[in-house]
Design a protein that fits this description.
The protein has about 180 residues and is mostly beta strands. It is built from 2 helices and 11 strands; from the N terminus they run ββββββαββββαβ. The strands form 3 sheets. Strands 4, 5, 6, 7, 8 and 9 form a 6-stranded mixed sheet that branches.
């Protein structure tokens, strides 16, 4: 879901559109506040289960329609590093404990104005899903299917780095809630 600010968060004056030479932005004529509309950092994890033969865990968000399974993702919180944030997200959403973590890459997801920081996480332990997730599936690197957007492209990049040629699925028109 995208939404646009209408009022200044500092003084509650209606914001107006101004062109600053590069982009159109929202600005407050009363106090000068500018809404920069910077991308939001999102963390994602390709979770490899060390205690389940290296299978990959993908999950379906409870809010999504359909049967799309994707990487574990979440927003980075103030005061935490990306590494701490993805460890927290993995633990909160799956109860898994991370023993190894490495950066896969950083990508833009302009449709939702996000920057996605994707990690490969080696994890172990019992899988207990949070209420945010409806179900999970385990895949081998040879059987997992990638999608041509957001984290699906990072999963494909990771698979190639491991010597696997990624297979892609065709999705219907993208749903704004899936990254």
């Amino acid at each position: 879901m995208t939404y646009e600010y209408r009022f200044c968060p500092a003084c509650a004056t209606p914001l107006v559109r101004v062109h600053d030479g590069e982009r159109e932005r929202l600005r407050c004529a009363a106090c000068g506040y500018t809404h920069w509309n910077n991308p939001t950092p999102v963390l994602a994890a390709i979770i490899e289960l060390a205690d389940r033969g290296g299978q990959l865990l993908l999950a379906r968000n409870a809010a999504w329609s359909g049967r799309m399974f994707a990487l574990i993702t979440g927003f980075m919180e103030a005061g935490e590093s990306p590494e701490d944030g993805i460890r927290r997200e993995i633990a909160e959403e799956t109860s898994l404990q991370v023993s190894e973590l490495s950066l896969v890459g950083v990508s833009d997801f302009q449709r939702l104005n996000q920057v996605i920081i994707t990690y490969h996480a080696v994890a172990h332990g019992p899988i207990v899903l949070s209420p945010e997730l409806a179900e999970y599936k385990l895949f081998t690197p040879q059987t997992v299917r990638c999608w041509r957007a957001g984290t699906g492209l990072m999963l494909a990049q990771w698979l190639r780095s491991r010597g696997h040629e990624p297979q892609f699925i065709d999705l219907p028109r993208p749903d704004a809630s899936s990254t």
